[in-house]
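Quick note —
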Amino acid sequence: MLNRLGLLLVVISVVGCSPSWPPQEMYPPEGVPDNAESIDPWIASLLNANVSKATGIVNERLKSGDTQLEPIVNLMSEFTPCQVAFSSQRGHVRCVRQYLDASSNQTQYDVFYLVQPLDAEKLESRIAFFDEALRPTMFEFLTRFAGSGEEMTGAAGQFSYDSWPTAEEFGYADKSSLGTWKDATLFYHSINGDAVFIKPSGATAWRVLETDETIPIATTFAEFIKLYADIRGTHVTFDSWAYRDFIARRKKE
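Predicted structure written out below.
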């Protein structure tokens, strides 16, 4: 509930009390660097765009022929780009979706930040970690979503951008409980401190901060992406507790 409230407050600070949604114009950018030359070209293309043009720019970046990415690409089609913001020297486009909360019957908002693309050298380094058969899909995913999520980079709440420590390096108190996941690398860092680690095969697992335990999520990358999109489709933040609630509800259906 607190995470959802945090997202709502972020959007209120952006959209104010405007009665119309979506907006026609992008809201003023935040934290723009003084040195214009330091701004990533993709982000620069959004600075003077209206919402319609920004939507086209975002959609062009996100479209992919890899069917494994369809769930997250389709999820992003629900969001409207409405502001450019900078954090940790990186540009982000703040994308927002409006929805009716069934429990309160009130209009609420959800946020997803797309960060500027990862540079080619770091992208190549990251892809090399994965099994050869998975590398084309990881290239497609990382060029679109590396560093993106519920918060801007510099804080937790997004897919890892350019730092990929192993589970063993991450600093957990009980390293003996990592088992076969000790060499898996950071893939997603949740707002509450939970983290998803990924193996070269694409298998994923939660490392739960509160309980210091490892919980397998999916054996394939495609399965993980489907779960991620399904959970975020329920308008909650992505962490191990939301995951467990989602799985429990699914088993009852």
